[in-house]
Amino acid sequence: MHGRPRKVYKPEEEAASAAKAAKLRALQSQFMSYHHNKIYTKEAVDLSTKLLEINPEAYTAWNYRKLAVEDKLSRIESDPDLVKTILDEELSVVESALKQNFKSYGAWHHRKWVLSKGHSSIGNELRLLDKFQKLDTRNFHAWNYRRFVVELTNRSEQDELQYTDVMIGSDFSNYSAWHNRSVLLSSLLARKVDGFLPNKKIPDEYNLVHDAIFTDEDDQSGWFYHLWLLDQTVNVETPLLTSSWPSHGSCINLSAGCLNDSFSEPGSFPLIIYFNQAVGGVSSSTVTVDTELKGNEDLVWEPVSKKNSQVSCVWVARLKYMSSEPCFRKEYKVKVRIGDSPGIVSSRGCNFSAPYEFIFTAHVHDTLEESQGGIVSWTDGFDIWDAESKDLNSLVNLDQSNAQLDSKWRQEAIAEEIDLFRELPDSKIGKLTLARLLMAKAMISDAAVKGVHYNEILDLYKDLMVLDSSHYQYYKDEHSVALLRKVTSSTEDLSGRLFRYRNMNNSVCLRLNNLSLSRIASVEKLLFVQMLDLSHNELHSTEGLEAMQLLSCLNLSHNRIRSFSALDSLRHLNQLRVLNVSHNHIGEHSVDTTRYLCSSPLSNSECTRDEVGRQMPSLVTKYWDAYFVLRDLNLKQLDITGNAIAGDEFRSFVLQVVPKLVWIDGKKLES
Amino acid sequence: MGDLPPYPPLDPTTYDLIIVGTGVSESILAAAASSSGSSVLHLDPNPFYGSHFASLSLPDLTTFLHSNSLPPPPPPPPPPSHDPSDFLSVDLVNRSLYSSVEITTFESSILDDERYSRRFNVDLCGPRVLFCADESINLMLKSGSNNYVEFKSVDASFVGGDSSGELRSVPDSRAAIFRDKSLGLQEKNLLMKFFKVVQAHLAAASSTEIDETAVTITDEDMESPFVEFLAKMCLPPKIKSIILYGIAMLDYDQDNAETCGNLLKTKEGVARLALYITSIGRFSNALGALIYPIYGQGEIPQAFCRRAAVKGCIYVLRMPITALLLDKETGDYKGVRLATGQEIFSQKLILDPCITVGLESMSSLTDQQKETVRVLVPKAISSKERVARGICIIRSSVKADVSNALVVYPPKSLFPEQLAAIRVLQLGSGLAVCPADMHVLYLSTVCDNDDQGKAALLSAMSTLIKPQVPENLQSESVVENDPAEAKPTVLWRALYVQELVKGEFGGSISSASSPDGNLNYNEIVKSAVELYEQLIGGEELFKEEKTPEEENDAGAENED
């Protein structure tokens, strides 16, 4: 039950409770001896009944009863009447235990167990539940059990939906009822039951939740449900392709010169495909690559995600373009078809069902480009990239997802919500919802209308950061996401931030510095970027950057990185050569929360070799997080100055871990 | 009433207090005085408990209304005294409380048929309900008289008279606002905000700690008219009207200071809302704010009488008193003469509001004697205010799926000249007030004169029920399939106008209140408590009832 103050016990009450405890202990020890000796006599079972009446939390007693029931059932000749008597007895014990404590996990579990024995009293269960749910309408045990019983009885989901109507009608603060409603509707909508088509039902649900929200905007139940509805409106179940590199219709230049190491494996380049949700099953059989480039028959697709996970939004394959016989000055067409044969499946189990094809051209040049051995400066050597906006468009072009959506009702629903919540007098949650709605609108509407509301979204989050400082970081993150979407949604905005870096084959450099970003987003539109300047922001982590497989130089100076663990996603960037993490907070916090959560995997072991048998450097236990990140990177240049961790000791450690390093903190190393 | 059964003489003949009439005030006083140890004789000339608050069968109700509206019969000749009285005897007469009584039977079976006629418990003082948190409930719990009554919830309340002709349910709680289909989202928002302000104000007022952050209503606002405060809270007119007439239960048009004699201040309005709000949820088994006693309102005075009887009060029904006995020398009150001729003495006397001194006796009284009987002297009624009441027995319900419901028509909602709100209470057989397929409809409105009041009630009736012609005029050709006629038909109807008399303390002789024009008993209870304090002194009502055992008993209240 809710909102009941804790009672302070008087001395006499404490005495009574001590006496009760003593009695209980005696009972318990007697019970345990029965249990250990596997005695299931009537006397012994009655004792457990008594114990459970006093203390329904005694889960051992519940387990004992299960054994006793099994024992009894094994003795009788499956006489249905006797079975019924035995099970009825159990149900009544549970019922009295529940009267004692409504929220006893053991009791509810025991009841489920009894029912799963095929007991036929199921009809009574809903009646009992109605009684319990009247007493405490939000009790999640009862709601859980209800779902269990409903499943057993094959009661229709429509009937259950009606029950949530009644419960919500009598108290719309009943979060459990709203939750159950969302569970039921998810199922009904997914099965496309008659009368439950999303384009009709979701708008109805919006109307219902409006009544709750507008009646009492301070009550969170309605807002939770609204958020769920918004999710249903914006998100499609089936996975869709969001973007790729190279993009459709684009033309990439490759150098035949084998000395160029701007791609980690000479003579190959990454092919990146980016889905709107994590999928598995991307392989050479589900993605066909049709090209004259030789040696690409059995491409290996790898998920760009945490270790061992076989699902990811981002998948990469390396396409070879150097065969044994070099062909100079040649153009190759590459055709990629995704989803021709089934197999790409989202983590929720939905198939990628809309096959998609994209074609790009690869130019292989015979110019032997010099390897750039020089230090990469983030200040000199950049030219404004006077790219035609149509070139840019083709680089960031992504149209797959919107075309697939049956977006009309979604757009209408969102537009209605936006109009409505503009009316709701200022409240924090009202502002937040409006910001989310505007963002949803930007996400599902056509490219032409984009950008219109970004400033409004940004202003809303700015207001919220002031109004509700306890959730500052959340609003800050959302603000960053919106800002990045704004930047990436218009070619005008983006082209102003794009440069060519002369000293490295005119690599494409994107500058997103000084934007007070706290989170990275919209990476799917930035797959073409080779150099990224994120300096002077408020980033805590590089999460999201792992998709940018072409990235060779990354500037993270003047951010809020607190440890090397926060750079973990960089391990996926095979081509990263230059990393600047100067002027962050690495090593500053003695109790690093990140470190605390994943305590050193090396701390308890004395081993000095890693899993492939390489000798581990000294100090590895001290700098284990740096070790795990740096050993997987082929860095040539690292800037670490301005962090608490920087110093001679760490420097010598780095040199052991990254033997190929040429530049550290702007100084060339003597080889 | 001339044919009295022979009564044995009463014994004892001397009491601390004699009370005549068993209305709500009188019964509360009887119970309170008995509980505090006074010896009380409680008389009623009628053969039933409750006087003007009684619930009666249709024939009894008809008889009662007629006998209390005709000019009083000439006083019976004083019975021959056995021995010459030592006292000056002042004859008492009954003043009629009711006027313009009009009773129509549309379907005679309702009276003829044995199955029906005795199954009605119809209130004289309707429409009337109790708020779960009101003073009468508190007093019943305190006195223990709650043990003798059971209540049921009034299922719904509506405000009628908007242009659509639909009855709008009163959104009186969070859940009701949420469910309401007729309110817009902004309206829901504003209304709930308003309730929250009121609740926060009440919480701050009742809390002992001073919470600086609590939003309270400013003192300035509290003194301003309630309508202005509602406007300040941005409430649109239709919501204002729901709050004023459907929740605060006001009578007069608050937007019109001229016709409204009494423009409500915000503090009074907030107090009325507080009563409503605290009523909701006071008893877990009550659905809303309003409850009604099973078997009718007559159960309320009867419950207090039973309590009084338990505490030693002596009851005699069918016992009118004919005269006051005053001391010949001093003119002080001494006692009363019963219709049996027996003389009974007491320190103090409380009389039903319709008992007065006969005019012919008045002329012979000295000034001092007049002073003693001051409260009984018929005077020009200070307030011309009256209340028109109507009772309809109908078949089926005014609102589908709802049996017990309150409907309020705010001023001017039915016709432009409508002076005051009209309240309508429909009760069903679940409350044991009528046979299963029928409902009893009570209507009331305050009015300046009989015609005005009755016109208002008839207007409300015509919107709620099918127009009906008396049985003898009915023809076979009545077309039943008129689309508008999902309305119930009326079987029996009573219309009457009641005078409003307030109880008064007059030293040794006091008078009790008549039923008032309100929906609940708050005013009546308040005046009874005042009268008790003046009679008995500062002693608290039913104070010894507050033992823990009795408190536990109180929990049994309102089992439905």
Automatic annotation (TrEMBL), chain A:
GO molecular function: Rab geranylgeranyltransferase activity
EC code: 2.5.1.60
Keyword entries, A-Z: Prenyltransferase, Repeat, Transferase
Cellular component terms (Gene Ontology): Rab-protein geranylgeranyltransferase complex
Pfam families: PPTA
Catalytic function, reaction form: geranylgeranyl diphosphate + L-cysteinyl-[protein] = S-geranylgeranyl-L-cysteinyl-[protein] + diphosphate
GO annotation, biological process: prenylation
Domain of life: Eukaryota
Enzyme class: transferase
Family stated for the protein in its record: Belongs to the protein prenyltransferase subunit alpha family.
PANTHER family in the record: GERANYLGERANYL TRANSFERASE TYPE-2 SUBUNIT ALPHA, PROTEIN FARNESYLTRANSFERASE ALPHA SUBUNIT/RAB GERANYLGERANYL TRANSFERASE ALPHA SUBUNIT
Role: Catalyzes the transfer of a geranyl-geranyl moiety from geranyl-geranyl pyrophosphate to cysteines occuring in specific C-terminal amino acid sequences.
This protein's name: Geranylgeranyl transferase type-2 subunit alpha
Gene source species: Raphanus sativus (Radish)
Lineage of source species: Eukaryota, Viridiplantae, Streptophyta, Embryophyta, Tracheophyta
Automatic annotation (TrEMBL), chain B:
Cellular location(s): Cytoplasm
Entry's Gene Ontology BP terms: intracellular protein transport; small GTPase-mediated signal transduction; vesicle-mediated transport
Gene Ontology MF terms: GDP-dissociation inhibitor activity; GTPase activator activity
Span list, region Disordered: 66-86, 539-560
CC annotations in GO: cytosol; nucleus; Rab-protein geranylgeranyltransferase complex
Keywords: Cytoplasm, GTPase activation
Composition-biased stretches (Acidic residues): 547-560
Pro residues bias locations: 70-82
Function: Substrate-binding subunit of the Rab geranylgeranyltransferase (GGTase) complex. Binds unprenylated Rab proteins.
Protein name as catalogued: Rab escort protein 1
Name of the gene encoding the protein in the UniProt record: LOC108856425
